[in-house]
TrEMBL record:
EC number: 1.16.1.8
Assembly notes: Forms a multiprotein complex with MMACHC, MMADHC and MTR.
Co-factor(s): FAD; FMN
Full protein name: Methionine synthase reductase
Keywords: Amino-acid biosynthesis, Cytoplasm, FAD, Flavoprotein, FMN, Methionine biosynthesis, NADP, Oxidoreductase, Phosphoprotein, S-adenosyl-L-methionine
PROSITE patterns found in the cross-reference section: FAD_FR (PS51384), FLAVODOXIN_LIKE (PS50902)
Gene Ontology CC, one term: cytosol
Ranges for domain Flavodoxin-like: 9-153
Domain FAD-binding FR-type: 275-537
Key word Oxidoreductase present: yes
Catalytic activity line of the entry: 2 cob(II)alamin + A + 2 H2O + 2 H(+) = 2 aquacob(III)alamin + AH2
Compartments in which it is found: Cytoplasm
Amino acid sequence: MCCDLKRRFLLLYATQKGQAKAIAEEIQQQAGAHGLEADMHCMSEMDKYNLETEKDPVVIVISTTGTGDPPDTACKFVKKIRDTALPPDHFAHLQYGLLGGLGDSEYAFFCNGGKTVDRRLQELGAQHFYATGLADDCVGLEIVVDPWIDGLWLALKEAFLLQQEKEGMSSHVSAVSSSASAAPYIVHELNLSSEVQNLKIEDGGVRNSDALTQKLVDINHVASAGDNEPSLVHSVPPVSQTALNIPALPPEYIEVQFQDTHGENPSLSSLVLEGTTFEVPITKAVQLTSNDAIKTALLLELDIGDTDFDYQPGDAFCVICPNSISEVEELLQILGLFEKAEHFVSVKVKPGTKKKGATRPQHIPERSTLKFILTWCVEIRAIPKKAFLRALVECTSDAGEKRRLQELCSRQGASDYTHFIREPNVCLLDLLHAFPSCKPSLNLLFEHLPKLQARSYSVSSSNLYHPGKLHFVFNIVEFPACPTRAITRKGVCTGWLAELVAPLLHLNKNALGTKGRSPSTEKIHIFARQNNIFHLPADPSVSFMMVGPGTGISPFIGFLQHRQKLREEHREWEFGETWMFFGCRHQDRDYLFKQVLLLFRDELGHFLKNGTLTHLKVCFSRDSAEVNMPKYVQDVIRLYAKDVARVLLKEGGYFYVCGDKKHMADGVSDAVVDIISMEEGCDKLEAMNKLAMLREAKRYLQDVWS
């Protein structure tokens, strides 16, 4: 098929962390096999495309960030199409298909980034040529993404046919692949009953020709007698005995060359594109929980006095963190590159690559040491995507291991991928231990390892109450050992911070007061997180309620500190009620409230006495022996149903929720819906609509995490 006969479609993507771009690249790559050409651009590159004059079908892949916002790369586009002066037929000529969200259905504004664009395009007259897909990261993006891409080609064919009928150009129909319904996968036919007989088993391994290595499986690996349970490295029928549909091999496009050991690595600030970074010292650290608590919570104080960094209570900020040094060194050892860790490498686009529009990943410097890249630039803990697994197949010499990797990236092995890679958070190191014959090149790793993302934390202080200081609270995250991971790992950032402040914890283990103060030489890099809306009401006379179990209490400490200073400075003002609902597991082990009381020299007690905090309601989930005692914060909220309804529905108050999404925030939301239904005398559907309106009005606000 001649290139000039390929039909073009416009492919736009908007990404925050690289997911949407990777999916768009997959679509672009598969397009060629269907006789199509994808003209791909980032949505922010508005000088390279024009929807006002676009005649060809448009495919949009867009992610969601924050609590339902479009990604930063879509902001200009969204602002443009939201122009109220645009007529309702502005995009009447436009046909599009949208794969949206790439979000998490556990959040209230699931896939809202994609829904926002989709809804506005519809309002402006654009027409779907293909149904919108909403991918859910909670259960696995591939569950929606793969079938959506499979069906895209038939939809595009029909769109082109319709377009050609209108233009009278039916002669070009043949330019589109006639087998548009076929899946864009390479099919590896594996007939175990006949081909396994050709294998020669020597020294417990399989030796065969390169051709057979691509197709055959180690019979011991796949069908071990007595081993009937699948695992990361072992499959069972039917997966182990079926022909596989595996993704096409992504074209190589990165070239890494070693240089000398002379030079300087880039600054950490140069790795951040989101805004200005600030290097600030950690001045204090206090452990908020006892040593036998299930989770360890820490409070850190940063000195921002010598910087221009500013914040409001409720804001979030990002910490630039490295990968674990021990894990980086372990990876270097496995790759056989430990001796070259401090050598500089040059990272460029591979000459003659077949990848269209290939560019060096922005998160990887053009020149730096290998150790710097693996430490600060790429997420070695990332869960490998199926395209990564597909590429690793080509680096694996053992036939059985090769087959298992093929299964894990195949459509037939989708369930195994979820159970043995996605759910247990398997990372590159785990794979390399599990499949020891897999020896990937740096080229391949740099092509597939995503950017090491800065971690976001909620501020737990007020800049009025603590000028020049910033406090934040976090739990040290732990990933326990499991069948796919032999050791327990700590969170990338929380583990690093805990190790960083260990000396300060020893000095300041009693209090955050002046006793035990010692200046720290440890510094971290931070930057502000954009689009924060988790703020106090602008009108201080408005009442508000705060729900923050565990470390979810942290932003509300800042709220109350700020309110206290405003009360001191503006005694003539009228201030509304403030409610706090707090909960944790055990009163004696992890009662953060008591610790915070000590920490801030009885601040909360003072807030209660002087009226800054009007109501404090506390529960302990593991200490509630009596059946009728409230166990969780949502149970306590139900006890004060009339007050909740009064503040929210009659007084125009605000409701804030901070903490765990899955096990708390949904329960709180359900409780509020029930309260609205009961107090307003309406059915549950109407109550849900009222809560949705409160969310839209930014009066029911959440700062939650999975």
